[in-house]
């Protein structure tokens, strides 16, 4: 199941089987002037069917949008063996319920996705990156608002991480920091457009604006392909570096903008109040956040000296309760899997979970698809 | 139910009640630097709940995408009176089945949408329009491919209509044609960006490319607000003008790019073979198409001298069969309503329709929501 079945080169629609590797598809469609509308750190290995079934988000969601918007059709084998064929290649379709949407993010619990029709994005002709150094989280948000104004249609990523994340990547991966000085926060802003000269001018305007407003402490631009790749490598090794730095509890949440930074403050405060964090020999060494500003998705890491015990008990379910009570999602882009179904109740109401379960019962009455996972354990 | 409940000005998310008028919301969010991600000819009257329930497409789908991508959450009153609250404001959410999607395009048959959370688009700082005159439909498609290359991220609409449509608007609305000469086809290409100087330069490059390649016969650009509005008015009066020109049968289809023009050819040929079209006193006066190239959505008009009789019998269900057999959708952006449910079978398989009906039965077992419409008559 790794064949490209069809491509519409005029409007940019690909039909491919679910076993196709994302990067292979990206290379294939570039000859027609397109790119895949999703890219992840795992793109060399992850497959299209998995991207759909986990509702993959990724680094450039801000620009290219969600699987729910980009997937145009699916071929799904239902639990009873029938094939549900919605493999249309049409962008506009208002004929009946959009049932393919149920399978996006269902993690295989309703059927097996065997082929996907997906809308492609035009291949950019120009790309550049700037790394910013900032002193506060609110300055990151201000920089994002100004980027939407000055860079507008060419912004393709707006990533942030904090000082300790930067130190951890330098220490455990051996990479050089993209900025020479130390800052409380860092931002990676990437543009993708069709004219390098225009894009560079827009970036200059943006950097001048945020400098003049006192939003940043430092900024450095990267225009060469190798330099851009190096900056992205620094960013993409963040999770690995944390993993090497100790025993990592890692969380993937979405939160409304106004609560994003509070999560870090609350977690530090909670763990300190239990004497688990804050002094040199505390069971928890580090608590950090990084993430994607434009789509409200943040990754929180709690680095302990050992797994289990009081640290784990202090973290869960407390952290899911906190996220749920601040209108967040307990699974932003990595799904529920076997572990997080039981925490779904903190961010979805009984009516919503009940409706999900009734749909599971309707489509898979014998419970044979990916049993015991996802909403089955909610 | 016409209140704005909340706005996240940093990432651009609006929560509003379903009775809010689209244009009012657009005006409201502009103070925060955003626009609504959908715009329709009916924006002065249509309401947000209706936009969601009909899965509205509109003029700039090409740029801003679908309701399925932009709607982040819904508040829905279920047939049994319970409130299904998925009114989240989060762009990334992979926690369970995305059940709100079922209500997008359901035309009120599964529940009543009372509030909507929707992702906004950054407000453009610059806009311009060019009207092209072309000699063939394949030249329109070639111009679209080149626009995706040269105008890329700033293209916001790519509309086409044919010679007879142009004549009908001139004759029945009294508007002046945007081009002085007559052409087999016309295209309206609009850009929206953040720098007028850059956008004008990109438009010049695009026009030079399509002139040099011999893709167009004529082109005229419009930069002043009033002139842009006039061109859009010409385009938006197309359906009205056709309606004034005779007894209009109007169809709203999506078709793969390669079959779009064939629909017109096939319809003319079919009606001619039945002696209903082609001579001066034929029962059918005109058969025309116009539409949105980038999203495969075309509107076909058959203008008869009187309603009913042999013309209607010749058209339906023949035209739905033709669209279904060419992998098209029988309802692109105007939904199924009371009339088109029975034609759903031409573009969706029995398994797909059966699954839709089982979902209707699950959520509305007593059949009290918008009875006899939509999939209920499929």
UniProtKB/TrEMBL annotation, chains A, B:
EC number of this enzyme: 1.1.99.40
Pfam families linked to this entry: FAD-oxidase_C, FAD_binding_4
Cellular compartments per GO CC: mitochondrion
PANTHER family in alphabetical order: D-2-HYDROXYGLUTARATE DEHYDROGENASE, MITOCHONDRIAL (PTHR43716)
Catalytic activity: (R)-lactate + 2 Fe(III)-[cytochrome c] = 2 Fe(II)-[cytochrome c] + pyruvate + 2 H(+)
The family this protein is said to belong to: Belongs to the FAD-binding oxidoreductase/transferase type 4 family.
Coiled coil regions, renumbered to chain: none
Domain FAD-binding PCMH-type positions: 1-123
Protein's recorded name: D-lactate ferricytochrome c oxidoreductase
Designated gene of the protein: DLD2_2
GO MF annotations, alphabetized: D-lactate dehydrogenase (cytochrome) activity; FAD binding
Cofactor(s) needed by this chain: FAD
Key words of the record: FAD, Flavoprotein, Oxidoreductase
UniProt keyword annotation of Signal present: no
EC class of the enzyme, as a word: oxidoreductase
Cited InterPro entries: FAD-bd_oxidored_4_C, FAD-bd_PCMH, FAD-bd_PCMH-like_sf, FAD-bd_PCMH_sub2, FAD-linked_Oxase-like_C, FAD-oxidored/transferase_4, Oxid_FAD_bind_N, Vanillyl_alc_oxidase_C-sub2
């Amino acid at each position: 199941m790794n064949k490209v079945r069809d491509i519409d080169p005029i409007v940019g629609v690909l039909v491919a089987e679910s076993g196709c590797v994302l990067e292979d598809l990206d290379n294939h469609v570039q000859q027609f002037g397109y790119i895949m509308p999703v890219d992840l750190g795992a793109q060399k290995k992850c497959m299209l069917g998995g991207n759909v079934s986990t509702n993959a988000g990724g680094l450039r969601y801000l620009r290219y949008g969600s699987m729910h918007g980009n997937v145009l059709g699916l071929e799904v084998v239902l639990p009873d063996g029938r094939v549900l064929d919605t493999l249309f290649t049409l962008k506009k379709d208002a004929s009946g319920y959009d049932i393919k949407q149920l399978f996006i993010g269902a993690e295989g619990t309703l059927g097996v996705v065997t082929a996907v029709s997906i809308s492609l994005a035009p291949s950019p002709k120009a790309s550049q990156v700037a790394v910013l150094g900032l002193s506060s989280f609110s300055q990151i948000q201000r920089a994002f608002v100004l980027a939407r104004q000055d860079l507008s249609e060419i912004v393709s990523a707006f990533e942030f991480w904090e000082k300790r994340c930067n130190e951890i990547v330098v220490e455990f991966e051996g990479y050089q920091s993209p900025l020479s000085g130390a800052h409380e926060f860092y931002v990676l802003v990437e543009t993708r457009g069709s004219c390098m000269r225009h894009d560079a001018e827009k970036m200059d305007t943006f950097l001048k604006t945020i400098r003049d407003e006192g939003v940043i402490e430092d900024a450095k631009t990267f225009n060469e392909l190798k330099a851009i790749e190096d900056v992205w490598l620094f960013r993409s090794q963040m999770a690995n570096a944390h993993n090497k730095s100790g025993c990592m509890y890692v969380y993937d949440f979405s939160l409304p903008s106004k609560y994003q930074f509070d999560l870090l403050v609350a977690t530090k405060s909670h763990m300190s109040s239990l004497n688990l964090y804050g002094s040199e020999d505390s069971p928890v060494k580090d608590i950090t956040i990084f993430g994607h500003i434009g789509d409200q998705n943040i990754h929180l890491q709690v680095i302990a000296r050992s797994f289990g015990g009081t640290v784990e008990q202090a973290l869960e379910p407390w952290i899911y309760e906190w996220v749920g009570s601040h209108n967040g999602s307990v699974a932003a882009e990595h799904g529920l899997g076997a572990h997080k179904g039981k925490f779904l109740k903190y961010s979805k109401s009984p009516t919503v979970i009940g409706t999900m379960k009734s749909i599971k019962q309707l489509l898979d009455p014998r419970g044979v698809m990916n049993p015991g996972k996802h909403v089955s354990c909610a």
